[in-house]
Specification:
One of its GO terms (molecular function) is small GTPase binding. InterPro entries: cDENN_dom (IPR001194), dDENN_dom (IPR005112), DEN5A/B (IPR047278), DENN_C (IPR043153), PLAT/LH2_dom (IPR001024), PLAT/LH2_dom_sf (IPR036392), PLAT_RAB6IP1 (IPR047277), RUN1_DENND5A (IPR047294). It comes from Triplophysa tibetana. One of its GO terms (cellular component) is cytosol. The structure is a single chain. The strands form five sheets. Strands 1, 2, 3, 5, 6, 7 and 8 form a seven-stranded mixed sheet that branches. Strands 12-13-11-14-15 form a five-stranded mixed sheet, with helices on one face. The chain is α+β, with helices and mostly antiparallel strands. The chain starts with a strand and ends in a 19-residue tail after the last helix. The chain has 43 helices and 25 strands.
């Protein structure tokens, strides 16, 4: 029987009062009641795993352990205009398990718990319920209970003596454990019995207050005193209706920054409310959360909540579920949880755990300790918190909260100052009593025991507290200094101030505010400059909202580039959350301070204060940890309110009731007189005495701003539209749970998942395509590797949620990997029959995809199973979740994600076996759209597998392609290669000259950059014309082409025996049309491509304008490279030596106007440079009158020329020129050398008059461009400068 009292007017503390339970009058006879009881039996706890009351035996619940449907018996008043009474929701949450029975042998202590009802607009109503037991007086119900027991015991006897049944393999039901000794029926009856002649039957009942604000302490006292009035031998001075009426209509909400005292049945009750400059109202025990979970776990849970990971709280105490949920969300200030929030999930709503959205839910554990019996639909991205066992399960790859160690130290100091251990404390109540009875402040002043005032915690607390060994270990780990610890003096020792509440309550207020201030200070420090990065919309609000999901509201890349490196993994993910987007939206929407919602106003004022104190420039960051300085000020504000009460409400008084009304039977909470409680006072007589009408009206507006977070209708509409992105469901509808409602809820999930997929793919593409996308009007300029990783991780999370939706039976932590394994198993069974004899991995000629390299390397076969095996062979990946993520990354890198998933889902029989009909993966249209969105990833190149799994072994296949015209059939020397990538290089590998291809395995080289290739010049014919070298990564399938087109051999071409080739990624395109892609390996495609297309052999004639542009683009590519964060830069070698790189650009400069000898062989640039070197050396010896600057430059130039010429490597003249340019760029000498050579007489001899080097203005502009490289620290790849000792 539930009883709830609900108050609704916003200017009063309570909205409704009500009572819940079961009405016995509706049952005519015992049989009807039995039928009712069986029909409405709830399956208790998680997923029907019912723990038995008997000694460890897994029997069906006995009748006294079952729960039954409850209903609201009465609520007062009937309704309130702005807060309609939701009978179903309130009934479910007052008694989430339903009605329960007990006998005199059971514990029947009253239990208090609170709950929350979240409306669709995000506003909240709080409920506070006290559940107690009353004796059952109905003879029919007592005999019905006895009948149920007879039936139950007979069933159990049959089960125990029946032969064991074997479930099929596919049967998801857990097998019952073997029962060794067969208990006799008499033993069963002894442990599971109710005897009508011997036992007294009790039934649960509940009284409840519904309030607009969470004054948890005051509400608890009100309910406890009302219940006390009913069971006390001394009846209260007034009828119960007087006290309820007083609460409903005569106790106003205290205004912001004020305190209020009102009268309960047996004593006065106090509530106080923070001012508009303080942190918002919070009235739950933070102490309890730290005692239950420990500081380390609280911080991990807090991190999960900030990153919007699914969180499931698990406890057998409803109030613990609510306290943990409310504490974690309160500590997020100034951010607010935006998703499903159900701290107490009623037993009838367990299907809601299927929700494929971020949620924070609390599940009642029914006293089951065994976590393994709990079947959850999805655990890949779940944070599971077992509150009662002080234990937390975290998702993989959870980033660390910034400055975690210093943060733990600071919170520890606050906790220790109140005598609390930062570690979880199973005996928290016992220790708590000890600490309270022996105040730390007394210890400080106790000189007799040799305690030093500066080291208070070395005393009784350290000797007696059972958790102290663990505490000291934690203290050492976090570096907290106990000596410097400031132990807070207990307020009660201070003679000057007298707080008008209990000592324990005052301590709770102070501890709460201390911890909350430390958390709030973290965000104030981390986001002190956030306003600088807010992107204000250029268009009007209406059009901004219609394009909201495509707009960027925060310059994430710039913000992250300012942050200390260790913060990035956490911050890059946090900036992607809904709560951060909502916070920034709120900032954009407010025009001035008055317009701001309460949390934003408080946060901004704190940020301003920090700026004034630190006087830091807007973009200057520091990773130095700055402690909170607000605690004392915040504590004083609370103390002031509690010492001097601002308002006293009207006392309860006799109501206008008929004679005989208001009486009740001792021990039973009565049905109250609805006629006197349905309406408030007609005159304003009492209201005027307690609170002026003006005050109440103003307060209502404030409360709306503070707790509904909406200032006006327009704001409400905007906020709703803005945040409608996949978060429409804040709490399940608790009313009509018909199949159609459940189906509708699931349909909302399916639509939400599809919308999220669309937004996520679009966001990832826009970010990846960078500048091109910005020019088209989308997004930001750049994406960092950290950000890319974050977006891919969130895509993996989305895929896990889609694959978890509507699962028939959960197997393993990753639903996606589980599905893949089922597919692999069925495919391997089908393929066991011999089909074709084609060697694996090679496609038939007819199937071959057209490719730049088709002649040399046939493409790898597209195979979902083969990609799975690659992942299964990586020993570094231990978990199913990790394997699923690695598989997604590999598929994205291979541009096969959509294709693979389509293939996986094409097995309809398997999908039917694994998923319920309503699952996302069985909604055909949505599934097709989802795969279509994923197909768009094929437009860009991701290296999300290669760049993450850097230590794994990878097979590579290398082929050397000689020229077709002058093939290497007569070639007698022994070739060798050395492959280098961004992560490593292979060392020298010998290549058999008859096949010209090798396969080798080595640690991941990263993106490939260069191939050094040469031969040993042995045999009769050691001249070799090589077209190119191809290298393929055997796992990702990436094929790199290293063009050569030059001879290797003495006395031919430039006489080189080895060359350094720079490669580029070859794309396999499905058609002749080249798909749109931005190769991340090169600078943006150069303008030069419009003018020329060259093969390595041809010498194109470019005009001076084109040459200047080419040099400019090459330098620009290098400048952009250094402006990226270090981890995102890629290979500098490509920018120096690759196509249209710096070496190529300077080659064009030196070739322009170069006199070509008609009769003789080619003259190379190196020949000109050697002649210039000879001139400089002779000029120096003949001591020609040149200034010191010139002499130093000439000396440098000659020194580099000599070093390159004396290298033992057999690189030709062009290779030497490349080396000189690279060394000149590294040592910032190129612009000096150009100036030197332009003035050199050798230039006059070897160049035409029109040559670029002879045009002073062009040479000066070239020098200026090259000077821009001076500010960069250029490091060369080892392969470029091997054998040079400079």
């Amino acid at each position: 029987m539930t009883s709830c009292l609900n108050c609704v007017a916003s200017d009063h503390v309570r909205s409704f009062f009500l009572s819940c339970g079961s009405v016995t009058e509706q049952f005519g006879d015992t049989d009807a009641l039995c039928q009712y009881i069986q029909a409405t039996k709830f399956r208790d706890g998680a997923r029907g795993q019912l723990a038995s009351a008997s000694e460890g035996e897994n029997f069906e619940q006995s009748p006294l352990r079952r729960t039954f449907k409850s209903k609201v018996l009465a609520h007062y008043p009937d309704n309130v205009e702005w807060n309609p009474f939701d009978q179903d929701a309130v009934g479910m949450l007052c008694m989430p398990k339903g009605l329960s029975f007990r006998t005199q042998a059971d514990i029947r202590e009253p239990q208090f718990h609170s709950f929350i009802i979240t409306r669709e607009d995000g506003s909240r109503t709080y409920g506070f319920a006290l559940t107690f037991f009353e004796e059952v007086t109905s003879k029919q119900i007592c005999s019905a209970m006895q009948t149920l027991y007879h039936m139950h015991n007979a069933e159990q006897y049959d089960i125990l003596h029946a032969p064991p049944m074997h479930h099929g393999l596919d049967d998801p039901r857990p097998a019952h454990p073997q029962l060794h000794p067969t208990p006799s029926l008499s033993r069963l009856q002894r442990f599971n019995s109710y005897d009508i002649s011997r036992d007294t039957l009790y039934v649960s009942k509940c009284i409840c207050l519904i309030t607009p604000m969470a004054f948890a302490h005051a509400c608890r006292k009100v309910l406890e005193q009302l219940h006390q009035a009913v069971i006390s031998s001394q009846p209260p001075p007034l009828p119960l209706e007087s006290y309820v009426y007083n609460i409903l209509y005569e106790v106003p909400l205290p205004p912001a920054g004020r305190s209020l005292k009102f009268s309960g049945v047996y004593g006065s009750i106090l509530c106080q409310r923070p001012s508009t400059a303080e942190l918002p109202l919070f009235d739950f025990h933070i102490q309890e959360v730290f005692e239950l979970l420990g500081l380390e776990n609280v911080l991990q849970l807090f991190t999960c909540a900030l990153l919007e990971i699914q969180i499931l709280l698990y406890s057998q105490h409803y109030q613990r579920l609510m306290t943990v949920a409310e504490c974690i969300t309160a500590l997020m200030f100034p951010f607010q949880w935006q998703h499903v929030y159900v701290p107490i999930l009623p037993a009838s709503l367990l299907h809601f755990l299927d929700a494929p959205v971020p949620y924070l839910m609390g599940l009642h554990s029914n006293g089951q300790d065994d976590r393994t019996k709990l079947e959850l639909p999805q655990e890949a991205n779940l944070c599971f918190v077992d509150i009662d066992n002080h234990f937390i399960e975290l998702p993989e790859d959870l980033p660390q909260f910034p400055n975690k160690l210093e943060f733990i130290q600071e919170i520890s100091e606050v906790l220790l100052a109140f005598g609390l251990s930062p570690e979880a404390n199973p005996q928290c109540s016992e220790v708590h009593t000890k600490i309270r009875s022996f105040r730390s402040a007394d210890v400080v002043s106790d000189k007799r025991n040799g305690n030093l005032a500066g080291s208070p915690l070395n005393s009784f607390l350290l000797r007696e507290n059972q958790t102290i060994a663990r505490l000291q270990a934690l203290v050492k780990r976090t570096g907290v200094s106990l000596e410097k610890l400031d132990v807070k003096e207990d307020a009660s020792t201070n003679k000057d101030t007298k707080v008008q509440c209990g000592e324990h309550e005052f301590k709770m207020y102070r501890l709460n505010i201390g911890v909350r201030e430390v958390f709030a200070n973290r965000f104030t420090q981390m986001f002190a400059d956030y306003e600088v990065f807010v992107i204000q919309p250029s268009q009007d609000k209406e059009s901004w909202f219609s394009n909201r999901d495509q707009m960027q509201n925060f310059d994430k890349a710039s913000f992250l580039s300012d942050q200390p490196e260790p913060y990035l993994p956490f911050l890059s993910r946090f900036l992607e959350t809904q709560m951060f987007a909502s916070f920034i939206d709120g900032k954009i929407l407010c025009h001035d301070d008055e317009d701001k919602e309460h949390t934003l106003r408080v946060f901004d004022s704190r940020v301003d204060k920090i700026r004034m104190l630190n006087v830091r420039t807007p973009t200057l960051r520091t990773s130095m940890y700055q402690k909170c300085t607000n605690i004392d000020e915040a504590e004083k504000a609370i103390e002031m309110r509690l010492c001097k009460i601002d308002h006293t409400a009207l006392h309860p008084h006799l109501l206008d009731m008929k004679i005989g009304q208001g009486r009740y039977e001792h021990g039973f909470f009565p049905r109250l007189q609805s006629d006197v409680l349905s309406t408030g006072p007609t005159s304003n007589k009492y209201a005027k005495r307690s609170a002026p009408a003006q005050w109440r009206r103003r307060d209502r507006q404030k409360q709306h701003a503070e707790h509904l977070y909406l200032d006006n209708d327009q704001r409400e509409k905007y906020i709703q539209e803005a945040r409608n992105l996949g978060t429409t469901l804040r709490q399940p509808k608790l009313s009509n749970l018909s199949p159609s409602v459940i189906a509708q809820t699931n349909w909302k999930f399916v639509e939400g998942l599809l919308k999220e997929c669309r937004n996520k793919t679009k966001r990832m593409l826009v970010e990846k395509m960078g500048r091109e996308a910005v020019e088209l009007g989308h997004g930001e300029v750049s994406i960092t590797g950290v950000e890319e990783n974050t977006l891919i991780a969130s895509l993996c999370d989305l895929l896990e949620r889609i694959w978890s939706h509507g699962l028939q039976v959960k197997q393993g932590k990753s639903a996606l990997w589980s599905h893949l394994l089922h597919y692999q198993e069925s495919k391997e069974k089908r393929d066991a029959t011999p089909a074709g004899l084609t060697p694996p991995g090679i496609i038939h000629e007819t199937e071959r995809r057209k490719s730049d390299a088709s002649s040399a390397l046939p493409p790898l076969k597209v195979s979902l199973i083969r990609d799975m095996r690659h992942i299964q062979n990586i020993s570094e990946i231990k978990t199913d979740v990790g394997k699923a993520r690695a598989w997604v990354r590999l598929s994205m890198e291979k541009k096969l994600l959509s294709r693979h998933l389509k293939q996986l889902l094409s097995d309809h029989e398997l999908a039917k076996k694994l998923y319920k009909r309503y699952a996302f993966l069985r909604c055909d249209d949505e599934k097709e759209q989802f795969l279509y969105h994923l197909l768009s990833f094929n437009a860009v190149d991701y290296f999300c597998f290669t760049n993450v799994f850097t230590t794994i072994m990878i097979p590579y296949h290398l082929v050397i392609i000689p020229s077709k015209k002058l093939g290497g059939s007569m070639f007698t020397a022994n070739p060798w290669v050395c492959v280098a990538g961004e992560l490593a290089e292979t060392g020298v590998l010998q290549v058999p000259r008859n096949t010209l291809e090798i396969t080798f395995e080595c640690q991941n080289l990263g993106k490939l950059t260069t191939v050094q290739m040469g031969h040993d010049n042995s045999g009769l014919y050691a001249k070799w014309l090589v077209e190119s070298v191809m290298v393929r990564n055997g796992i990702t399938g990436h094929t790199y082409k290293f063009p050569c087109g030059r001879w290797l051999g003495k006395g031919i071409d430039d006489g080189s025996l080895e060359r350094i080739l720079v490669g580029e990624l070859v794309t396999n395109t499905e058609s002749e049309e080249r798909m749109c892609r931005t190769p991340p390996m090169q600078q943006s495609p150069g303008m030069m491509r419009r003018f020329v297309t060259i093969s390595p052999n041809s010498k194109p004639k470019l005009n001076t304008g084109q040459i200047q542009e080419g040099v400019g683009e090459a330098i620009n590519g290098i400048v952009k490279h250094f402006h990226k964060p270090e981890k995102e830069r890629g290979s500098l070698t490509l920018l120096l030596c690759g196509e249209y790189g710096l070496v190529w650009a300077l080659e064009q400069v030196f070739q322009h106007g170069f006199k070509s000898p008609r009769l003789f062989k080619n003259v190379f640039i190196w020949d000109f440079l050697e002649k210039a070197q000879v001139y400089f050396e002779s000029a120096e010896q003949s001591q020609m009158t040149q200034d010191e600057n010139w002499q130093m430059r000439a000396r440098h130039f000659s020194h580099f020329m000599r070093a390159i010429n004396s290298t033992p490597r057999n690189i030709g003249k062009d290779g030497k020129f490349q080396m000189l340019v690279c060394l000149g760029a590294r040592d910032h000498l190129l612009h000096h050398w150009i100036a030197l050579l332009a003035e050199c007489p050798i230039t006059a001899q070897m160049y035409e008059d029109t040559a670029l080097l002879k045009d002073h203005s062009l040479v000066n502009s070239l020098i200026r461009v090259l000077q821009t490289l001076q500010e960069f620290n250029i490091t060369l790849e080892a392969s470029l400068v091997k054998g040079i000792g400079i």
